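Title: Comparing notes on inverse folding

I've been comparing how different people in this forum approach sequence design from structure. To keep things fair, I'm posting one structure and asking everyone to reply with a full sequence. Here's the target:
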């Protein structure tokens, strides 16, 4: 299907862009990890913790599919806080490494995903109530990732 092939290309392009941007600023991230973002309460390292937790959107989509039907009791804020807390002992360099390895793994896994996997409908606890798995991978992965990365880059330039 043309739409699925286009979605797959968008995901791959977003993952490659994410990898390039993180690699390009990795030294700045390590040096500025404690700097606050310009909006909200997070520091750069907190945003990196969130990105590290979400760095392989293919694995996250698989997990969401496996957990369909289970009631999700945590709010988005609680999930985000947990992602930051789980990685509080990691250095910024380790967070960057986790981000890079997660994105690289997602790129590798993307090639093996069937069109049927990307097209299957998955229940979500937000917005429309259900989405195609490919949309979850794209919007919960590279698009979301690049938004946060923009916030991080903005804080580094401030």
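Reply #1:
Here's my take.
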């Amino acid at each position: 299907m043309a739409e699925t092939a286009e979605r797959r290309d968008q995901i791959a392009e977003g993952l490659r862009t994410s990898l390039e941007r993180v690699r390009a600023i990795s030294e700045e991230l390590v040096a500025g990890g404690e700097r606050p973002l310009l909006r909200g309460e997070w520091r750069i390292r907190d945003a990196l913790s969130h990105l590290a937790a979400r760095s392989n959107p293919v694995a996250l989509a698989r997990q969401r599919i496996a957990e369909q039907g289970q009631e999700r009791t945590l709010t988005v804020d609680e999930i985000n806080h947990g992602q930051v807390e789980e990685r509080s002992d990691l250095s910024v360099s380790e967070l960057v490494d986790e981000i890079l390895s997660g994105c690289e793994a997602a790129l590798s896994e993307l090639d093996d995903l069937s069109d049927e996997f990307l097209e299957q409908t998955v229940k979500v606890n937000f917005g429309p109530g259900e989405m195609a798995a490919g949309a979850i991978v794209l919007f919960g992965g590279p698009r979301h990732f690049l938004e946060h990365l923009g916030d991080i880059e903005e804080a580094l330039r401030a």
